[in-house]
Design a protein that fits this description.
Number of strands: 8
Strand order of the largest sheet: 1-2-3-4-5-6-8-7
CATH architecture: 3-Layer(aba) Sandwich
Shape: globular
Helix content: 25-40%
Order of helices and strands: EEHHHEEEHEHEE
Structural class: alpha+beta
Low-confidence stretches: none
Number of helices: 5
Distance between the termini: 23 Å
CATH topology: Aminopeptidase
Number of domains: 1
CATH superfamily: Gcn5-related N-acetyltransferase (GNAT)
Strand content: 25-35%
Oligomer: single chain
């Protein structure tokens, strides 16, 4: 899907090859990528990602700060397994965290999903230890609906618990 959503401070759009340096600045950081299943990415992996991100198949979109004209994070947004239900997720460069960017981008995606796509439900998941992520979900009006024990496999024979959040169109 080709996406172009603007907010006061942000542009949510498809990734471009030129974005690789901005992406490496946070995707190569172990702390930032700790809760992300793909884990840390190196320069080559990021370059491959930005050069092979076809518009019609992408599930991941750049969050560009319009003032700085650089990518400060990404929104994961894709159809989920239920009819008219999509999933959202976010990663923000540590240099830009705690400034409301994740909430601003996520709210813009919720608005797009419910008003343009006419979705019924949008969900998000995160690990209970990922306080920042579940606070964003709650801040944008999502409700915690579930807690799954040891449902996500992490390398080294470890299993993660997961919170499940959702919001319905009529609640938005």
């Amino acid at each position: 899907m080709n996406l172009h959503i603007e907010t006061k401070r942000l542009l949510i759009r498809n990734f471009q090859e030129k974005d690789w340096k901005d992406i490496v600045s946070y995707c190569s950081d172990a702390k930032t990528m700790f809760y992300i299943p793909m884990g840390v990415l190196n320069v080559q992996e990021v370059k491959e990602f930005t050069s092979s991100n076809p518009e019609e198949e992408t599930e991941c979109y750049a969050i560009e700060n319009k003032l700085f004209q650089r990518v400060i994070g990404q929104i994961i947004y894709h159809q989920w397994c239920m009819e008219r239900t999509w999933e959202i997720g976010w990663i923000i460069n540590p240099k830009f965290q705690n400034k409301g960017y994740a909430s601003e981008a996520a709210k813009a995606i919720l608005n797009f999903g419910f008003t343009i796509q006419k979705l019924h439900r949008i969900i998000a998941t995160c690990q209970p230890e990922n306080l920042s992520s579940w606070k964003v979900a709650e801040k944008i009006g999502m409700r915690r609906e579930g807690y799954s024990k040891k449902c996500i496999y992490k390398k080294n024979n470890a299993w993660w618990d997961e919170y499940f959040y959702a919001v319905l169109k009529e609640e938005y």
